[in-house]
Every structure is written in structure tokens, then in C-alpha cells.
Design a protein that fits this description.
The protein is α/β, with parallel strands linked by helices and about 290 residues long. The chain has a domain at about 1-145 and about 175-205 and about 265-275: 3-Layer(aba) Sandwich (Rossmann fold), CATH 3.40.50. The protein has eleven helices and twelve strands. The strands form three sheets. Strands 3-2-1-4-5-6-10-12 form an eight-stranded parallel beta sheet, with helices on both faces. Strand 2 (about 25-30), helix 2 and strand 3 form a beta-alpha-beta unit. Helix 1 (about 10-20) crosses helix 7 and helix 8 (about 210-220) packs across helix 11 (about 275-285). The protein is globular and about 50 Å long.
């Protein structure tokens, strides 16, 4: 049995689909029975638990050959990540009690950076779990191509994507979420001891200009990238409802300035199979209002 948290999300769903396709039994860890219904229909065992209570989470993760752990993302954290650290503590307590056979934890590029930024939450997760007496793989994934879902409407209607990643011709490490889930499932089926880090990015890095061109091909129209001035970021993020935009701004600075990257520039990172054009075309097809 393989336990998958966040199974209703893009990455968790891809993990589960890969395991099911390989013939493995899957336990779907969900926040409510209703959220697990679709996975129950596919033959999964359903366990109800979340990061608010270590007891049910430990029960959900007990007795499994391997577990996939995803910390619920927080895009607007409280100062000092005070809203994230309790969830990490619950996950650690549940794992210490459940003792799954092995563990694959979704982490991120930049988790090794001590500089303040939004990705620190996953550095804290890695640090907290590293001393568990379990075989643990931290899967550090690049920037998700699917983050470009925010750009579909402006690309389609205006022929523009508004880029915080800058300069526009500078490639950054990206990856499709299906590739993340596929590799996580493959890692769960391996045997290893101790703690290891696996990095993952696409075969080619992606610049905002290339992202715009991919939208253009998918939409059949000219699409260009336009930089969002750094001085406008805070006001724009606050208009979007963020209370504490500084960590997000610091993260984007890290990509733009190059201090968020893989340890050797991605030379030894695993490479995804899904090209940018395929990922963007799928985003366009799935977007509300798509033809």
C-alpha cells in the first residue's frame, strides 16, 4: 500500500495515477470523504486526515510501504511563517508515530537557501523531517510550468503575459506538475537508506519570452511578455489580497538574481519528459472559456 497526501491536487493526483497504472494499491489521504469519492471510485482506499491533527494523519500513514508528503502550500505566510510551522510539527509527529516504510517529500528548488523568501517553508520542512529514522527522499522541484495558469486570460484576450520573472530573455528552471508526480511515484517504488535529495527540472530552462511564445503557439496568435516593474510588485500583490507580500517578492528576486537555483546549476538534476509547449497547450485547453 502506498499513501498519497494532497491527492486532489495536480502533483498528488499525478503520483496516484502513476502508482495505480503500475498496479499498486493506493491510500488516498483527503480532508473529507467527499474529496476522496473520485479516488474511491478508482479503487483507492480512503483515509480522512489533514495537517491539523497528528492522530488521524498517523493512522492514515501507518502500515504503508511508502508515503508521499506534500506540505499544503502557503502563498501569503504570516511573519516568521507562524502559520506554517504548526503544520510541519503535525506532519513530523504523525510520521514519527506511523513509521511508513519510506518517505518521498515534495520540496523545492531553493530549499537549501537560508536567505529569507517564500520557499523557506520547505526548508523548515526538510530540516524538521531530516532526523526521522526513516528512508527519506526530498524531491526538490523547479518552478511549476502550471504557475502560468494566471497568464492564460491575458495571453488569449490581450496577447500579453505580465512577467515578474526578469529579464525576459533569462531562462529559469521549470517543470510540469505531471513530471513531478511521475518521478515522485517512481521514487516511492525504489529502495534506499538514509536521507537523499533528488532535483528535478525540465530538459530545457524557460525564459518569459519562451513562455509567451508557447502561449502564442497554443492560442494561434502573437503573444509577448511584458515585465512588471519591481517597484509595483508590493502594491499589486496587496491588491490581490496578500497581507505579507515580502516573502513572495524575495522569492522572485531569488530567481531573477540567480541565488535560487539547483546546487550545480541543474547539471545533475533529473530531467522531465514534458516540454513547455505541451504543458502550456494543456493549460489553455483546460482554462474556462477555452474553445
Amino acid at each position: 500500500m502506498f499513501a498519497v497526501t494532497a491527492i486532489t491536487g495536480k502533483v498528488g493526483g499525478a503520483v496516484a495515477r502513476t502508482l495505480l497504472a503500475a498496479g499498486h494499491p493506493v491510500r488516498a489521504v483527503v480532508r473529507s470523504p467527499e474529496r476522496g469519492a473520485a479516488w474511491a471510485a478508482r479503487g483507492c482506499e480512503v483515509a480522512v486526515a489533514d495537517v491539523s491533527d497528528a492522530g488521524p494523519l498517523a493512522t492514515a500513514l501507518a502500515g504503508v510501504e511508502a508515503a508521499f508528503i506534500l506540505l499544503p502550500p502557503v502563498f501569503d505566510p504570516a511573519p516568521d511563517f507562524a502559520d506554517v510551522k504548526p503544520a510541519i510539527a503535525v506532519i513530523k509527529a504523525a510520521l514519527a508515530k506511523a513509521k511508513p516504510g519510506r518517505l518521498v517529500v515534495l520540496s523545492t528548488i531553493g530549499a537549501d537557501s537560508a536567505r529569507p523568501n517564500l520557499l523557506n517553508s520547505l526548508r523548515f520542512l526538510e530540516e524538521a523531517l531530516s532526523d526521522l529514522p526513516l528512508p527519506i527522499t526530498f524531491l526538490r522541484a523547479a518552478w511549476f510550468m502550471e504557475n502560468a495558469s494566471w497568464d492564460v486570460t491575458s495571453a488569449r484576450d490581450q496577447g500579453v503575459i505580465h512577467s515578474y520573472l526578469q529579464p525576459l530573455d533569462r531562462p529559469v528552471p521549470m517543470i510540469a506538475t505531471d513530471d513531478v508526480g511521475r518521478l515522485a511515484a517512481e521514487l516511492m517504488q525504489q529502495s534506499w537508506s538514509g536521507r537523499r535529495i533528488v532535483e528535478l527540472e525540465a530538459a530545457e530552462r524557460v525564459s518569459p519570452d519562451q513562455l509567451a511564445a508557447a502561449f502564442g503557439r497554443a492560442l494561434g496568435r502573437r503573444v509577448v511578455a511584458q515585465p512588471v516593474p519591481r517597484g509595483d510588485w508590493q502594491a499589486l500583490f496587496r491588491e490581490q489580497g496578500m497581507q505579507n507580500p515580502t516573502p513572495r517578492m524575495q522569492m522572485i528576486d531569488g530567481f531573477n538574481e540567480g541565488w535560487i537555483d539547483f546546487r550545480d546549476g541543474g547539471v545533475h538534476a533529473c530531467k522531465g519528459r514534458i516540454p513547455l509547449g505541451e504543458a502550456i497547450a494543456a493549460l489553455v485547453r483546460s482554462h474556462p472559456g477555452a474553445a
